[in-house]
Design a protein that fits this description.
By secondary structure, this protein is α+β, with helices and mostly antiparallel strands. The protein is 40% helix and 15% strand. It has one domain. It has three helices and three strands; from the N terminus they run H-E-H-E-E-H. The chain is globular.
Length: 93
């Protein structure tokens, strides 16, 4: 973070956020690709596809793909699973 003041400010803003929204610029072709892309930031398990790109696993993160489908990603605490599933159902409605 010492390399650029812009990078430092961006990382500090992300670290202080409670909720993030990631807008992906691709549309998964099926449910397997969608699940994989929401989790890893890539469309499949191939090397170099995603690997956490544009994902922050310690935050509540809403992910919206190019087709408008959405999902959640983040730390999996038992009490938050129900909240996330209910919120995502309302977003998709």
């Amino acid at each position: 973070m010492d390399y650029s003041q812009n990078n430092t400010a961006a990382i500090q803003a992300i670290e202080s956020a409670i909720l993030l929204v990631s807008l992906d610029d691709y549309t998964p072709a099926n449910d397997d690709e969608r699940a994989w892309s929401y989790w890893s930031g890539g469309l499949d398990r191939q090397a170099g596809s995603g690997h956490g790109k544009n994902r922050w696993f310690d935050k509540h993160e809403i992910i919206v793909d190019e087709s408008g489908e959405s999902g959640f990603n983040g730390e999996r605490k038992l009490l938050l699973v129900f909240y996330r599933s209910q919120a995502n159902d309302r977003l998709d409605a």
